[in-house]
Amino acid sequence: MQFIRFLVPGLAAFTVIASLACGANASTPATTAATSIPTAPPTIAAAATPQTAGPATPQPAAVADDPAGPGPIPGEPCPVEPDVCEFAVLVTSLIEAGDGDALFALGSAVPGRCPAAGRFGGFGGPTIELCAGAAEGDIAYGYWVVQAGEGVLDTQSSFLNRIRFWLDASTSALVGPDSYGPGAARVGSIACTRAVDAPPGTCDGNWIDLNVTLILAESAPPGSGAPGHRATFFLRTRREGDGTLVINGIGNSVPPNAILQSLLLNAATDSGEQVLLESYPWTP
C-alpha cells in the first residue's frame, strides 16, 4: 500500500491523503492473515515535509472560499477517460435523488494493517474502531474518511454516515446560482493520478476523485460549511482489476473549493517513483 501526501503550493492548508492500493470488495472478511501489506504504510510527499501522525483532532467547519469566476459549462467534452465521466454522471444522478444506499452499493473496501490493540493507526491508517478485536498485524478492510485534512481508514458505518451527511447537505442545497454556477449539487471537477510520461487526461485508476460542489442552505448540517456559500466534497474512486470503477472513500479538504480549479502537482512514491496529480474542471 502506498500513500500520497502533498501540500498545494500557495494553499498551505490544503492537504490530501490517498491510497494507491489494490483493493478488495466490501464482502472481504474484516481481518485476514495477509503479508503483502507493509506493517507501517509508507508516506510520500511532494514539496512538503511529511507530518508526524498523531491522534485525530476535531475539525473546524470549512471556511468560505467561493470561486471567483464561472465554473465549467455542462456538456463540454470529457477531459479524462469516457467511463470516468460516465461514472460521474451516475454519481451526480444518485446525489440528486438523495440515494445514499445506491451510492454505498458502489463502494468497495480497501485493506489496512492494524496496530496494537487500542492504538490509533495514524493518519492514513486504520481507526481503533475498524481494528476492534483484531490483533496487531491483522488486516482490516475499511473506507477512506477525510474531514478537512488527512484521512483515516474507517468502518463501513462511518463511511455510510459521511455519505448521508453530505447527501443531507446536497438535498438542502440552494438553487443558486452564484458566479460559479448553479447551487444544486453536481460534480465540478475530476482529479486523478497518472504516470509522469502519460498524456493529460490519463487516469492510472489508483486515485480518482469526483469533486461534488453545492451552495449550502441554512438547513445544511453543521460542519458542512458556511450557509449561503459554496462547499465541495469528494468521492474517492479507483479502478478494479476488471476495469470496474468503485468508490472507496469520501471527504472534504481545506480550503473547501480549491479542488474545483485546474491543478497539476508533482508527487513521489515511497519507492521514488514520480507521479502527477491533475485536476480537471468538468461538470455533467
Outline the low-pLDDT stretches.
1-62
Oligomeric nature of the chains: single chain
Largest sheet: 10 strands, mixed
Q: Give the number of helices.
A: 3
- DSSP summary, beta strand count: 13
Q: Report the portion of residues in β strands.
A: 25-35%
Radius of gyration: 18 Å
Topology order in helix (H) and strand (E) letters:
EEEEHHEEEHEEEEEE
Structural class: alpha+beta
Can you give the helix content as a percent range? 10-25%
State the domain count.
1
Gross morphology is: globular
What is the distance, rounded to the nearest whole angstrom, between the alpha carbons of the first and last residues? Answer: 32 Å
Mean pLDDT across every amino acid position? 77
Structure in words:
The chain is an alpha+beta fold and 284 residues long. The chain has one domain. Helix content is 13%, strand content 31%. The chain is built from three helices and 13 strands; from the N terminus they run ββββααβββαββββββ. It has helices at residues 82-97, 100-105, 156-171; strands spanning 2-8, 11-20, 31-32, 45-46, 110-113, 139-147, 151-154, 186-195, 208-215, 230-239, 245-252, 263-268, 274-281. The strands form two sheets. Strands 3, 5, 6, 7, 8, 9, 10, 11, 12 and 13 form a ten-stranded mixed sheet that branches.
Provide a concise account of the structure shown.
The chain is of the alpha+beta class and 284 residues long. Helix content is 13%, strand content 31%. It has helices spanning 82-97, 100-105, 156-171; strands spanning 2-8, 11-20, 31-32, 45-46, 110-113, 139-147, 151-154, 186-195, 208-215, 230-239, 245-252, 263-268, 274-281.
